[in-house]
Amino acid sequence: MSAPQSVRLRVFSLNCWGIRYLSRHCAQRYAMIAELLDREQHDIALLQEVWSENDYLFLKRALTTSHPFTHYFRSGVIGSGLAVFSKHRIEDALLYQYSLNGYPYMVHHGDWFGGKAVGLVILNVCGMKAHVYVTHLHAEYSRAKDDYLPHRTVQAWELLNFIRHTSADADLVVLGGDLNMHPQDLGTRLLRAHTGLRDCYAETDTFHGCEDGITLIADNPFTKKKDLLPFEKGIRIDYILIKGSDRVCVRCESMSTTKGSVPDKPFPYSDHESLTSQLLLQRSDCMGGRGRQRDSSSDTGAPVCERVEVVSEARGVVKEGLHQTERLRLLAMCVLAVGLALLLLPATALPWFYPHGHCALSYALLGLLEVLGLAMVVSGALLYILFTTQLKALSGTEASMKLAAVNLRGSNGGCWEEEEGTEMEAPASLSHPPPHGGARSEQPTLLDCKE
C-alpha cells in the first residue's frame, strides 16, 4: 500500500517545572499532564524539566497506550530534564550536552547541575523521516544585566550546528522546547538564520491562546512577577520550530497555548504555558513540482548577508564572554596564590613572633591559617580548572563562528568584508566590495511551500 501524500501531525511542547521538593504541587501536576496527553492524543510530546526519573517513569506508565514510544535523555548531575513521547516508532536517539551551562557555585540558579542539552529522536511518520529535537537553554535571570548571555549564545550556536549536521537526510525537522530567548533575541535570530527553521506561531493559519503567543504569563499563579520585568504581560520563550525538505512540504495549520488556569483544576499544568501545533505534511511529488528548490539561501532561510551580520554579532558577545572569563580565571589564580601564602605563613612568621614560648593563641592561629589557606587553595584550583575549561569552549566557539563568517563572505561578493586576523585573502573579483552598512531588515520568513 502506498504511503499517504498528506499527513497531519500534532506536536506538543511543555516545560513541566518538575523540580522535586521545590516546585509546587509537582505530583498532582504530573497527573494532570498525563491526563492531558492521554486525552488530546498528540502525535509527539516534547517535555522539558522532567528532572526526576521517577516522574518520567510515572508518565511512561500512564501513557503506555496513547504514546507507546518514548525516550528519556540523561545528562549532567540531575539529568537534562528532556523527554519525548510519541505515537510513531522511535528509530534512533542521540543527545548532545552543551559545553557551557553556567557556574556550579551559582547554586541558587541551578542550571549547571541540570546538564542542559539537545536531544534528537528520529521517527518514521507514515514513511517520512522526521528528525525531532527537544532542548532547554540556560535561563535569563536578569534582562538588564545578563551574565549568562555568552553561555546562551554558545548554546544556540551548538544547537544550530547540531541540527545542521544531523538533519541532512531528514524529510521533516521539528524543534520544540524552552529556548529562554525572546523572538528577536540574538540567539533566536542566529538559530533561524542558519538552519531555516520557521516559527509556528509566526506563520500559523489560526492561533488560539495567550496574547502575542506569550508562554510565561503574569496571570499564572506559579509565575514570579519580578521575573517578567520589564514585560508586564509576560514573555514568549517557548517555541515549536519547523522545516521541510525538497521531498516534504510542511506548514502549520493551527497553533494553541494554554492560558494559565485549567478548568476544574486547582492550579495550572506548570509555570510555563504548553504549546500545540498541528502540522500539515505534503509530499513534494503531489505538489505538481512546487516543492522547494534548494539554493544558497533557501536551505537556511536567510540571505547570506544577514547570516554574516548575525554571526558577527554573536562573535562580539562570545568575545565579551572570553574577556569576562579571563578576569574570573585571574581572580581564581589570586585566590590560589593567597591560599598558598597562608599555608606558608605559619611556618615562617609565627616562630619569629613566639621564639621562646608555647602560646596557645599561636597554635590556634596556626591551625586557623592552615585551614583557611587549604580551603583557598582547593577553591582557587577548582575555579581555575572551571574557568580554563570555559575559556577553551568560548575560544573554540569564537573560532568556529569566525570560520563560518569568512566562508559566508567568500561565498557572496556583496557581503565580503575584510576580517581582522583572518588568514584568508579575498578573491580578486572581491577586492573592491561595495559599501556595506545601514540598518538590518526584519528577519524574513521562508515558506517551504506556497499556496
From TrEMBL:
GO molecular function terms noted in the UniProt entry: metal ion binding; sphingomyelin phosphodiesterase activity
Membrane-crossing residue ranges in chain numbering: 330-354, 360-387
Listed GO CC annotations: membrane
A Pfam family of this chain: Exo_endo_phos
Iron in keyword set: no
EC code(s) of this entry: 3.1.4.12
Subcellular location(s) of the protein: Membrane
GO BP terms: sphingolipid metabolic process
Domain Endonuclease/exonuclease/phosphatase: from-to ranges: 13-272
Protein's pathway: Lipid metabolism; sphingolipid metabolism; Sphingolipid metabolism
Entry keyword Ligase: no
Membrane topology, from the record: Multi-pass membrane protein
InterPro entries referenced in this protein's UniProt entry, alphabetically: Endo/exonu/phosph_ase_sf (IPR036691), Endo/exonuclease/phosphatase (IPR005135), Sph/SMPD2-like (IPR038772)
Family: Belongs to the neutral sphingomyelinase family.
Protein's UniProt name: sphingomyelin phosphodiesterase
Organism listed in the record: Coilia grayii
